[in-house]
Amino acid sequence: MSAFMPTVALPNGETVPALGQGTWNMGESKAKLRDEVAALQLGIELGMTLIDTAEMYAAGMAEQVVAAAINGRRDDVFLVSKVLPQNAGREGTIAACERSLKRLRTDRIDLYLLHWRGGVPLHETITAFNDLRRAGKIRFWGVSNFDTSDMEELQRLSNATAVATNQVLYNLSRRGIEHDLMPWCRRHNLPIMAYSPIEQGRLLKHAALKAVAARHNATAAQVALAWLLRQSGIIAIPKASRPEHVRENHAALRIGLTRQDLRELDAAFPPPDGPVPLEML
Ligand code: NAP
Q: pTM higher than 0.90 for the full model?
């Protein structure tokens, strides 16, 4: 039984959960496989049905973990995967997608992203994405780690009208996108997928987060997620392979941050006062 889950609209109007699940570092060790599958399944039950993966993660093994987790419930999830920039040529993209589909044991990826910009001309990747869409192998495409100038270049390509998201590093300690990339995406009605929402755990010891968390009888991770989730057009994709983390992250949806909380968080993690080049992990 899935609990309350806010949604974010893609440019075509279809909605996806605002809180999804990441999979980086899953599939690295056989001993952890069962727990990782179980964690993703628990997340799905709780309504965190958007699952983010990539051909890069554990050299394809993360996609196989996802396949096991969604076995028998493919239609309940919104699958995101990514092509590596070195594979992102016209034919390479198609071949990479076919390999991902095989590992994911499905006939379609809901959202297929270019993982980051490499040497391949953007229009080649986009042409392949459009071919994959026409063939029904992907439903939407998007980009990742694109800064404002990359988004402008993408927009100038006549065949780039269907971009569905930009997945970027965004959390309390990485607020650079608030200066221009986020306003650009908002103007173009483009949701942002916030990766590493708890800074891979590094945010958890921060005193200001702990102080706000204490007032809500919550954890620092939950406050970091609640801070993202209170913003419109943001999809957060924490990765958790422990069930207690999955439950905790889901419960962040119930936290309503007050004005005082936000003031304290702004003081500890100031918003940018000028342009900041996009950071990547
Ligand atoms: P993250 O989600 O910020 O942090 C993951 C780490 O935090 C894991 O060690 C996890 O532990 C721990 N954790 C999760 N929930 C917790 C909680 N409630 N309390 C304490 N610890 C908790 O970092 P991330 O994995 O880098 O980012 C999330 C996802 O974004 C990735 O998995 C991936 O899908 C995507 N991503 C995309 C890009 C890109 O270039 N497009 C780059 C980085 C990440 P356990 O696993 O032990 O539960």
A: yes
